[in-house]
């Protein structure tokens, strides 16, 4: 070790585990800023303008294709607010979700959160802001000035009706907020995580207040590492720790979604949307399914293992069978769905049918006993009804099962989907 390296005592006091934790913690924020740069540079975003997407037209990991999405980046301050217009919607799931710069859900607008004001106008205000909200407008206080918005409207059987409702949502900024600069943090491909260079973006990334609890020690370690890597020898040493220990720890945490659990080959996160002090789960979710909502809205299960605990094979054929008395509809007040995504970029798998998910609208065929068997295979199995088959050809893949409006065992955490059976 060189004399120069020895002159960086702060970093040398941190264990490899502390460096690994600091790396994974910071990565959670950088996944958000990475997507923000993509949004503004490539996707046509403008502050405080709502973009209505066509069904399926989104570019982020693990999309939900049961819904029509609209998106926005919002900036408000002490003298402004965002006026949101929500149309009257009955018998169809919808939500306007606001997330902060770490992936924390800071507000949801729908009839479940505001049963006495399910539609009409909402004023999204910075908490404590002294702004004049008109009578009859529901005030929604948020703790941050900058937010990402995901608007979801269930497609259901009538897509034209869903799209018409989607376009009735409106955003109008009231006042003239100072627009923030886009944080130009390190960019990277989702299939190849960055190394020590994440710490070059530490100060810029940490300008966004962390909504989690007890994160100060981790932030202090991040800053210490950012200072230490100014020394070339320390930079090389820490890069090695990051690539071996940090990325190894992250790879080990990803299958169980941070601090979650696996049963029947399905992983369920320990928390979602509201993270508390669970930075590890937050980063794994931001990586594998960015813009996740809270458990009260939806619960996600990831399927990457079969009934024996083996990884799903890229060209393998699998079945998933639900008994007649335990169908997925039992656990979802609104709807359920399952999609297959490639394991590197978490995007749906292209196929000639343009079929990317199975749900209640898939013209499913049930067994004579009322059971439901779903098929996941590169080519349609001879015994599989076409509506029950999801093509999985091309790349290593995993499944995501969603329950919107979770209830019963999904809501209380006791339920996991049945195992996937390799044929």
Keywords:
9 helices; 5-stranded antiparallel β-sheet; 25% strand; 6-stranded antiparallel β-sheet; globular; 3 domains; disordered N terminus; alpha+beta; Immunoglobulin-like; Jelly Rolls; 423 residues
Weakly predicted, low-confidence segments = 1-11
Strand ordering within the main sheet: 10-11-12-18-14-15
Number of domains: 3
CA-atom Rg in angstroms: 23 Å
Q: Outline the biggest β-sheet.
A: 6 strands, antiparallel
Q: What string, H for helix and E for strand, traces the elements in order? A: HHHEEEEEEEEHEHHHEEHEEEEEEEHE
Q: Please report the distance between the alpha carbons of the first and last residues.
A: 55 Å
Oligomeric category? single chain
Query: Total number of β-strand segments?
Result: 19
CATH architecture of the largest domain: Sandwich
How much of the sequence lies in strands comes to 25-35%
Q: Give the CATH level 1 class of the largest domain.
A: Mainly Beta
Assign the CATH topology of the largest domain.
Jelly Rolls
CATH homologous superfamily (4th level) name of the largest domain: Domain of unknown function DUF1214, C-terminal domain
DSSP helix count?
9
Mean pLDDT comes to 93
Folded structure, characterized:
The protein has 423 residues and is α+β, with helices and mostly antiparallel strands. It has helices at 3-6, 9-12, 16-42, 159-166, 202-205, 216-228, 232-253, 279-288, 409-412, and strands at 51-52, 67-75, 81-86, 94-99, 105-109, 120-126, 138-142, 146-154, 170-174, 261-263, 266-268, 298-303, 318-322, 332-342, 357-359, 372-377, 389-391, 397-406, 421-422. The strands form four sheets. Strands 10-11-12-18-14-15 form a six-stranded antiparallel beta sheet. The N and C termini lie far apart (55 Å). The relative contact order is 0.15.
């Amino acid at each position: 070790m060189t004399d120069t390296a020895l002159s960086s005592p702060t970093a040398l006091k941190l264990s490899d585990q502390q460096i690994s934790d600091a790396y994974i913690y910071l990565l959670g924020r950088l996944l958000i800023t990475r997507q923000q740069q993509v949004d503004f540079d490539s996707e046509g975003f403008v502050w405080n303008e709502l973009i209505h997407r066509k069904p399926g037209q989104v570019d982020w990991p693990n999309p939900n294709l049961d819904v029509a999405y609209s998106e926005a980046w919002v900036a408000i301050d002490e003298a402004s607010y965002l006026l949101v217009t929500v149309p009257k919607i009955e018998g169809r799931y919808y939500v306007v979700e606001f997330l902060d710069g770490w992936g924390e859900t800071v507000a949801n607008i729908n009839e479940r959160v505001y049963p006495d004001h399910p539609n009409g106008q909402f004023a999204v205000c910075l908490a404590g802001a002294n702004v004049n909200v008109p009578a009859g407008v529901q005030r929604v206080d948020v703790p941050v000035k900058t937010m990402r918005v995901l608007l979801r409207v269930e497609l259901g059987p009538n897509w034209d009706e869903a799209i018409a409702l989607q376009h009735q949502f409106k955003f109008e900024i009231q006042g003239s907020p100072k627009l923030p600069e886009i944080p130009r943090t390190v960019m990277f491909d989702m299939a190849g995580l960055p190394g020590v260079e994440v710490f070059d973006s530490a100060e810029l990334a940490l300008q966004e207040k962390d909504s989690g609890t007890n994160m100060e020690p981790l932030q202090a370690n991040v800053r210490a590492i950012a200072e230490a890597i100014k020394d070339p020898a320390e930079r090389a040493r820490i890069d090695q720790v990051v690539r071996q220990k940090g990325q190894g720890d992250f790879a080990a945490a990803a299958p169980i979604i941070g601090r979650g659990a696996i049963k029947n080959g399905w992983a369920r996160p320990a928390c979602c949307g509201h993270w508390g002090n669970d930075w590890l789960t937050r980063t794994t979710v931001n990586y594998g399914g960015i813009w996740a909502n809270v458990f009260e809205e939806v619960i996600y299960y990831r399927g990457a293992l079969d009934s024996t605990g083996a990884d799903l094979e890229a060209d393998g054929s699998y079945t998933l069978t639900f008994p007649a008395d335990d169908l997925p509809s039992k656990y979802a007040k609104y709807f359920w769905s399952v999609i297959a995504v490639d394991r590197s970029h978490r995007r749906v798998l292209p196929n000639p049918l343009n079929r990317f998910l199975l749900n209640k609208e898939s013209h499913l065929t049930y067994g004579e006993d009322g059971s439901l068997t779903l098929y996941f295979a590169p080519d349609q199995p001879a015994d599989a009804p076409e509506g029950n088959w999801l093509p999985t050809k091309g790349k290593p893949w995993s499944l995501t099962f969603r329950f919107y409006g979770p209830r019963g065992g999904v809501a209380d955490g006791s339920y996991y989907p049945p195992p996937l059976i390799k044929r």
